[in-house]
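Appendix B: complex inputs.
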Amino acid sequence: MQTLIEISNLNLYYSSVHALKNVSLSIPEKAITAFIGPSGCGKSTLLRTMNRMNDMIPGTRIEGKLTIGGTDIYSNEVDVETLRKKVGMVFQQPNPFPKSIYDNIAYGPRLHGIRNKKQLDEIVESSLRAAALWDEVKDHLKRSALSISGGQQQRLCIARALAVNPDILLMDEATSALDPISTLKIEELTQELKNRYTIVMVTHNMHQAARVSDQTAFFLNGEVVEHADTEKLFSNPSDQRTEDYISGRFG
Amino acid sequence: MGVLQDANRKQIAGRRRLDFALHLLFVAATSVGVVVLMALLVDILIDGASRLQPDLFNQYPSRRASQAGMKSAIVGSLYMLVIMAPLSFVLGVGAAIYLEEYAPKNRLTRLIQLNISTLAGVPSIVYGILGLAIFVRAMQLDRSLLAGALTMTLLVLPIIIVSSQEAIRAVPRSRREASFALGANKWQTVARAVLPSAFPGILTGVILAMSRAIGETAPLVMIGAMTYVAFLPNDLLDSFTVMPIQIYNWIARPQAEFRELAAAGIVVLLAVLLLMNFAAILLRNKYNKKV
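Resulting structure:
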């Protein structure tokens, strides 16, 4: 598998807190990489460095290198809006805009200058199909996005992220606020999506990481303890701390 | 001892009495406000009913009470509103957007914030003095409609800024994040994700600020808005009068008929204020439902 995201010696500080310590990680293309670890271990922080959402938190300082497809995303030539277009994100809580289902999906394309109604219609349909939501909402696209269920809202947020045609999809505990059936639907969806997108997901549910991901990285106190193929990491971890965590001795 | 029996019966009875007594107290407190308002309304209506006629709206002020009306005052208030509303909306909402979305969170911003909150509570007469110094004298606008409207704009600005800031702050951070994560820049996020959600709150604040301005007298007396204006302002630099000033003028006269006129004027002013507040409520409900 080809590496798409290359992180080397990354350090991140929130004011005086050293949140990521010398993280180095290679994330493969068109596969699912899961980040696991106890709360506060830095897995979400690392995820948010990949689309530079941490930029917005005052006092954040980053050292080291993070390249996507060979480009250092923290260099001056990279424009953060274009980066975020290429690196989509789905959040822990479904966060649709209080607009219609259609307008939610069209939000991104409109930001980037697409006005043509026919083109927008096509994007809305293909994005909703890709997120396995089309059949459920195709007859009421004008309805408020807040009127559908939480699981549907989260798939809507996935569709919204896909509508700007990203290469990478970051999922920050995207199923933790959902019921088991909605969670299952999204897990199945990720298996479809990984044929076309590189997915990086943060999850506090180890079973989910084991079920859906190809590779898993285990985080502890801001460090990557172990990064391996998911099967190996869960069946034969090489670090004692990983074993303790996955066997439920802490966290 | 049974489950539902309690050794502290006496205590419970005491607490219940306290609860009841406080309940009465709170009802009484609410009634005072309502009763006073009703008494005021009824008293004014009785005094002014005979003068609530088309003449009140069609006639200019006059020395003879039987011929006097408040046409120039109503139109003056209206003109002032028309100038003040867009000006204070743009400046107030603009400042609120800057402070909430763009300004760095540092000591200077906090100082500005403190200043604005303080300004919202400054007595209106102080704005009158300011208006007199800046608009009437320094800018030589004289005692004009424009000088009055600008002074009033200053008066309502802090109120609009504070209420708009609250409306903007109430928009959840997750909406901003959703927008930024799709590649939106700051202004796109503010315009497409924040303002639509904050708009009902902003609008409510603006309308309430406008209704405060419509009822204000002191700053306009200070800048010398005339009380006897027997014509409609033709341009921004014409002299003018507004409803509360006209009412004040009538009340100050000794004849009983003028007091009836004043009562009728107050009814009109109250009706306008009620209408504006009602509009604010309607707007808020309309937008809340849409979401």
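Chain B has a mean pLDDT of 89.
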